[in-house]
Structures are given as C-alpha cells and as structure tokens.
Amino acid sequence: MNTSEFFIGLMSGTSLDSIDVVLVNFPQGKPKLVGSLSSELPNHIRKQILQLNSSGDHEIEVLADLDPLLGKLFANSCLALLDKFSIDPSVVCAIGSHGQTIRHRPHKGYTLQIGDPNVIAELTGITTVADFRRRDLAAGGQGAPLVPAFHYQCFHSCGRNRVIVNIGGMANITLLPASLDEVVVGYDTGPGNVLLDSWIAQQRGLSYDADGDWAASGSIHTALLEQFMSEPYFNEPFPKSTGRELFNAKWIQQQLAQTLSDNHQKPMTDADIQATLTEVTAKSITHAILSHSLTEPEIYICGGGSHNKFLLDRLSLHLNTQVQSTDVLGLHPDWVEACAFAWLAYRTLNHQSGNLAEVTGAKGERILGGIYLA
User: Fold this and answer.
1) How many Å apart are CA 319 and CA 258, to the nearest integer?
2) What predicted TM-score, i.e. pTM, was given to this entire model?
3) Which domains does the chain have, with CATH numbers?
C-alpha cells in the first residue's frame, strides 16, 4: 500500500449524531477505505449547534466560541483514528473536513460550515482542506450536494442504471445512468432523518427512532401526509438543496396546526405522526427517483437512514423493487460521506475539480476548498 496516498475524511452531518472519520487510500486514483471511527458529539455541543441553526441572541459570540471548539473535537477524532490503526500523522497527505453546517441558503448566495480548519491543521500536524461548498456557490451553484461526483467515481456501472440515495439529516439522490452519454443528476429531495429525530426527541426524549420501530407502531395519517407533501420544495425543479432552515421542529408544528384546524380530521397519536413523517421521507425520495424514468434502476442506500428498517420497507414498496445498502457495492453506508470528503481533499491537492456543474448548477467544474497547510 502506498502510504503517500493516505487521506482522512471528516464528516459531521445535519443529523448531529456523530463525528465520522475515515482513513482512505487511493490506489490508481480509486478510493479504498482503510479504517474508520465514529465518536458521539457531546450533548452540550449538539445543543449549541441547534441553537445556532436558528436565529437567536448572541449568535456571533456562540459561533465564535463553537468554531475552534469543534475544530479541537474534529482534530482529536482524527488523532484517535490514527492511533487506533497505528498510523503516524506524517504519512497522511491531508484531512478533508466537511465542517458542521450552521446555515445553508444558496438562494441568498451563502452557506456556512464551522469547525476551524486552522485548529485541525495545528493540532494534527496534517494539511487540512475545508470550506468545499462556497467556491461552487461563487460559481452560481447550490454548493450542494457534492457527493454525487464521488458516487459516480465509486458506484457507476456501465451495465446497469443505478440510484444512490443518501439519507442523512437531509436526503439526496444521485442518478447514475449506465450510458456514458447521459449526465449524472443529483439533488436534495427533502428531509431524511431530521424530522424523525426532531419529533422523537420532543415526544420521547430519544435521539433517533431505532429501526423505525416507533413509526412502525403507528399509522400513516392521510390528511397530515397530504399537508406535509404540499410543501413547495418537493415540486421545485433541480438543481436544489435544502437544510434545517426549512425542515425543522417549527415546520412540523405549522403543518400539524394546519391539519388539526379541520375539525373533521380523525385523531392521531404521536406514533402516527412519526409514521407519517417517515412516509414524507419515503414519498419525497420515491417521487424524485420516479420522475426521471430510469429503466429498472438498482437502488442503493447510504447514510444513517440505511438502518431504519421501516423507512426502507416503505421505499421498497413505493419503488416496487428491493432497495439495498451500498455495502453490497463494497462501501459500508455509514462511511460513504466521510470517504467523499477524503476524496474531495485528494482532488483538491491534485488540482482536480470536485463538483458536477450539472448537479449543483454552477457555471462549470471548479477545484473546491481552502488549503490550510500543516
């Protein structure tokens, strides 16, 4: 193995469930997962991030405190990974850090991810590449999703049409036509786990719905589902991307209030609402995939949603095909996004583009990210 090709990918997503770190090698330019580590975000840090995700008092001070603190957490996670696999930091070319998204408003021309890369580079002694999204935005794109380029690199097949569905806090799809004459399409379909996690945290004090068991115990409420699916985002044309700015606890309450204002509606339990929120994720993903009329595509799932059995069952039902995880393609679903940011760092240091203009809507392909030398 060529140790000069070691890269670290660092991911902390919208779900706020963990910091995921991977060690990746690039034999012949193809990513190969060498090792991985996941560590929980401390609860007080998670609360501060959620506080920053919505407007409030003293935002600049909270952000200024949290930015270097997250940088330290990210750096320590990288060092713990290297220690786990007895790898000296000196043989790692770079860390690719996604950062923690605080705002994503591409229609206003900005996105913000924190977790100071200066701190990461200083504490690890490893060159760090970060702030991948804003160059794409500067070129007129959405800045997201960026993973479709990596999906194409890893999962494209010349023999079969494929769709990669990443279900994190938000959900995004990448359509990979078998024909090289057809373009790759990718965009955020809407909420992934974010509404499910929010509702179960509010009602049961849990961080997520394990296996979708709570949702499976309820019934899908037709009128509420119709209200949820009336959200204009679902029918907007791509390129498009979204985040907690739209899909959040307040959004759930607004939709509930609209539905409950009709006195003729049948009553619903908290579990019914969880089931219906799960159906929103399943239906919005399904609607997006079917709208492209790919012939008999294979469907592969990655991200935290790949562990939600109830959600996967709903997807299989609506798509009329069995969905599988990316594990069968050689990359565990928990590590796909972190690997993507290791790959993006690899691309940046090799002066290669990291975005797909047809996905993000940018004026062209761009080399992404700022480089913070060790």
Assistant:
1) 29
2) 0.95
3) 3-144+335-372 (3.30.420.40), 147-322 (3.30.420.40)
